[in-house]
Design goal:
Layout (H helix, E strand, L loop, with lengths): L6 H7 L3 H8 L4 H8 L4 E6 L6 H10 L3 E2 L8 E7 L6 H12 L3 E3 L6 H6 L6 E4 L6 H9 L4 E5 L3 H14 L4 E4 L14 E7 L14 H4 L2 H20 L1 E11 L8 H10 L3 E4 L3 H4 L6 E2 L33 H4 L10 E3 L1 H4 L4 E8 L36 E2 L2 H11 L7 E5 L2 E5 L2 H7 L3 E2 L5 E2 L9 E4 L1 E7 L2 E4 L4 H4 L7 E3 L2 H8 L16 E7 L2 E7 L3 E3 L3 H11 L3 H5 L1
Helix pairs in contact: 10-11
Length: 564
Amino acid sequence: MVRPANAVLLDELACTPLSGLSRSLGIDVEKWLPVASSPLPITLRVTPNRHDIEWTRSMLESIGGEKIPWMVVSESWVMPFSKGDYPSEEAKKIITLLHETGRITRQEAVSMLPPVVLEPNAEDLVMDTCAAPGSKATQLAEAVPNGLVLANEPSSGRLNLLTTNRGRLGIENMLIMQHDGRHIGRMPEPGVDGVVVDAPCSGTATTRKNRELWRSWTPKVGRSLFKLQSDIATRAAQLLRPDGKMVYSTCSLDPVENEAVVCEILQRCPWLELINIDADRLFPTLICHRGRDDWPILDESAEVVDWEGEMPKLVGLSEEMLNPHQRGFESPDLSKSIRVHQHENDTGGFFVALFEHVAERTPEGIARSMILHRELNREPEELPRRKRSKHTTIPASKDVVDDICKKWGIDKDEFAWWQRGKRVNLSSKMAYERLYKPVVVNKKGDYWPGEDFHPLKIIHVGQPTFTDNKGIWRPRQEALGLLRNRITAGVVDIDEETMISLIQGNAPLREEFVTEIERGSFVLKCGEFFLPAWVAARVSLMLDDKEKEIIRMKLGIKLEEEEE
C-alpha cells in the first residue's frame, strides 16, 4: 500500500523539524520517512447490529477490503487504496454509499484505540470531551449499548459534523453538548463512569493526511498546546467518579504533548493512578512502543539542546514540560502508556494513556468536582431554572407518546421520549434517569432542581425519530434502523415489482396502489427492505437517493437499464 515519495522530496523532508523530532525519539528515520510521507489507506468500522451487515461485508470484500488483524474488539477494515487513489469509480461509490447510509464509518485505524483502551461496561455513562467529528464518540456509543455517551464539542461548526454522524448512524444513546472542554458544566452525582480525552494537538503523527505539517511544525507548536491539553484532562478527571477510568490520547509524536501531560495530570489530580495498557490482549499484533521518561528538549530546528543548570530560554518552554529526570522528581511508570509509529503498522501515529480514579483516595464516593470544600452553614438555596425556548428539548408529553406508540405499535417503556418543536427523539432511559431527573448541586452547596439538564448545555438528545407532519407522526428515514425490530403497526407489505417502481420515481395514485392503503404515514415492507412512505393523493416514498441506490445495488438494477 505504501507509495514512497521520490528521493529528492525525501531528502527535503529529512531536514524538517518533524524528522528531527522522530530522530530524538529513536525512530529509524530512513524507515519511517517513506511511510510517514505516503497516503494513508482507507480504514473503517462496520456498524454492528445492522440487519444487512453480511451484505456490507461482501461489498467491502468485493473491492479488496480485509479486516484489520490487530483490531479484535470492534469490526474494522482496511482497504488496499487511499482516499485519493480509488482503483475505480465503483469502489469509490461503494465506500461513499456505505458510509453515508451509516453501514460503515470511515475512521483512521489508530483513532479507534482510545475507546478500546477505555473498555467501558455496556451500562456505563461515558463522556468524550473533544468529540467532533464523532468517530470515537459513535464507537463509544456502540460499546455501551445499554449506556449513554455525553459527546462534547465546543466549536459550533464542528458540532454540526458530530450531529450529522450521530444521525447517519441512527444512534439513540448519545447526548451532544457544547462546552469549552476546560469548563464542562456540573452534573448529577456520582459523575461519569468513563472519559475519553482525545486532546487537541499539533498532529505530528498525522503527516500522511496533512502534508502541510512538514512545513509548518516546530517544537513550539506542541509547547503552546500543553496547558490546554492539561486543563481539559484535569476537568475531565474532576468529573470522573471513583473507580471510573479516563483515557488521554493524541495523534502527536511529541512527548511534550503526551508523557509530559500525563505527568502534569498526575500532579494536578492525585486521586488518579496511571494504569497499564494491556496491548497484547487488546490489540495483539499491533506493533507499539511503551511511553518514555527521558525525552529531550528540542530547539526550533528540533535539534536536541544539551544543558546543565539554568533551563534553556525557548518559546513557550516551562518546567512542567521537562522530563522527570531533568526536574529531579520520581517519575511515574510512563511505560504503562503506549505509542504507535506510522511506519510499523502502515497507520498514522498515536499516543494513549489510561488512568483510574482510585476509590480509596476519594472516600466521599463521588467525583471530585462534587465535593464541597467547606460545610454549608445555612439552608441550601434553589437556583433558578434556565428559560426555555421553542428549541429547548423537553420530555415528550404523555399524549404525544401514546399517539406514536398507538400508531406504530412501539413499547414506550423501552426509551426516554423527548420533544423539540415538531420533532420527537428517542434516547436510552439513562439520559432521563442519570442526567435530567436528578438534582445538581453547585460548588457552594446550592442546587438546581431536577427535571432539567442545566447546567449542562445539552444541544441534542438521542436520535431524531419522528416528525409531526400535519398532525401525523411519521418516522424519519435515519431512524428506521432503530425502529426496524420495534415497529409492529403501520407496516404495509408490497411486492418487489411495486418497490422497484417506487424507487425509480413513480408515485401511483392511492386508488391505483397495489394494496388498499389509507392516507397518512406508513412503512412499506418488501422482504428485508423498509421504505417510509407518505400517502395523500399519491403514494410517495420518503427515501433519499442514497438509500434508493443501496436497494438498486442489492437488487442488481443498473441505472442504464432505468434510462432505456
